[in-house]
């Protein structure tokens, strides 16, 4: 049976309020004058992955809980504007929202509203199975209640990816995602020994490819038992914000990988897309296109030193 959907994204739909601050941590004061202003826009992790894969030509569908509220309207409008399929399951607690404090150097601190989710939340199994039956791949965001959908995705025979973000390598919340995915992304931010964590993921779970992003230091790829350093791509414009860089990396990697590109070259696609995302102000939602992505990868390949492997 043919696939109607290339990438089914589960979870991670929501709204961010962007607040630019003079520095992080924010200096204590009675008040701060904020420029370029405070902006609320649709776009959390699942939204950004869906935007990225869709912009690169993958048929993308997004499934998540959304409230009947202004924030949910913003999420629906984002998907409609970019032609991304969306199945919105009613969420009485409201649409996920967060406040992102963004420093002058592009670093951010995210404050998530924990009142808009409950431990009992579930994506309807019948809906998950129906979408999985016509999908090729699922990218599962680590938001509640996506872990409960993993068995149905596995039974449908999809390949699965996930992004553990700043996991410390031990927090149990992340383990269902970490151990059920074929392809795992994570950040090195909270890892004291990235290689050890990456290898444990392949030993304890299903993952055969693990990618750990390291910001300006590029990324590390574990594939076929070999750990390789992937160089950071030069940003095409000044860096203004790191928000969404990891999601952009994942989307571009998936685009290349699902087209049969080897993991190393897929990771080059990821670094180029991640660097591009860092040049987009956090008040906007934009994804790299195929032409610019391919040009960036070609530039990296011309300058890359072969054989940079680590044991």
UniProtKB/TrEMBL annotation:
<keyword id="KW-0418">Kinase</keyword>
<keyword id="KW-0808">Transferase</keyword>
<protein>
    <submittedName>
        <fullName>Sugar kinase</fullName>
    </submittedName>
</protein>
<dbReference type="InterPro" id="IPR002173">
    <property type="entry name" value="Carboh/pur_kinase_PfkB_CS"/>
</dbReference>
<dbReference type="Pfam" id="PF00294">
    <property type="entry name" value="PfkB"/>
</dbReference>
<dbReference type="GO" id="GO:0016301">
    <property type="term" value="F:kinase activity"/>
</dbReference>
<dbReference type="InterPro" id="IPR011611">
    <property type="entry name" value="PfkB_dom"/>
</dbReference>
<dbReference type="InterPro" id="IPR029056">
    <property type="entry name" value="Ribokinase-like"/>
</dbReference>
<feature type="domain" description="Carbohydrate kinase PfkB">
    <location>
        <begin position="36"/>
        <end position="285"/>
    </location>
</feature>
């Amino acid at each position: 049976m043919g696939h109607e959907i290339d990438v089914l994204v589960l979870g991670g739909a929501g709204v961010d309020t962007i607040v630019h601050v003079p520095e992080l941590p924010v200096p204590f004061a009675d008040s701060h004058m904020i420029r370029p202003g405070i902006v609320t826009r649709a776009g959390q992790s699942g939204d950004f992955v869906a935007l990225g894969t869709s912009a690169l030509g993958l048929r993308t569908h997004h499934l998540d809980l959304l409230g009947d509220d202004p924030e949910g309207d913003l999420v629906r409008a984002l998907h409609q504007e970019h032609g991304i399929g969306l199945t919105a399951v009613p969420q009485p607690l409201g649409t996920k929202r967060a406040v992102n404090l963004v420093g002058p150097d592009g670093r951010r601190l995210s404050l998530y509203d924990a009142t808009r989710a409950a431990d009992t939340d579930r994506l309807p199994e019948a809906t998950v199975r129906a979408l999985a039956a016509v999908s090729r791949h699922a990218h599962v965001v680590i938001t509640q209640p996506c872990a409960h959908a993993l068995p149905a995705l596995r039974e449908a025979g999809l390949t699965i990816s996930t992004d553990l973000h700043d996991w410390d390598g031990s927090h149990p919340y992340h383990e269902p995602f970490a151990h059920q995915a074929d392809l795992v992304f994570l950040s090195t931010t909270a890892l004291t020994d990235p290689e050890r964590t990456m290898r444990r993921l392949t030993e304890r779970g299903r993952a055969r490819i693990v990618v750990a992003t390291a910001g300006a230091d590029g990324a590390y790829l574990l594939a076929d038992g070999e750990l390789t350093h992937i160089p950071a791509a030069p940003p095409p414009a000044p860096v203004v914000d790191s928000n969404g860089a990891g999601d952009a990396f994942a989307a571009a990697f998936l685009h290349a990988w699902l087209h049969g590109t080897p993991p190393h070259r897929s990771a080059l696609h990821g670094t180029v897309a991640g660097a591009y995302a860092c040049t987009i102000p956090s008040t906007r939602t934009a994804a790299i296109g195929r032409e610019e992505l391919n040009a960036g990868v070609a530039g990296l390949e011309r300058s890359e030193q072969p054989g940079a492997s680590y044991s």
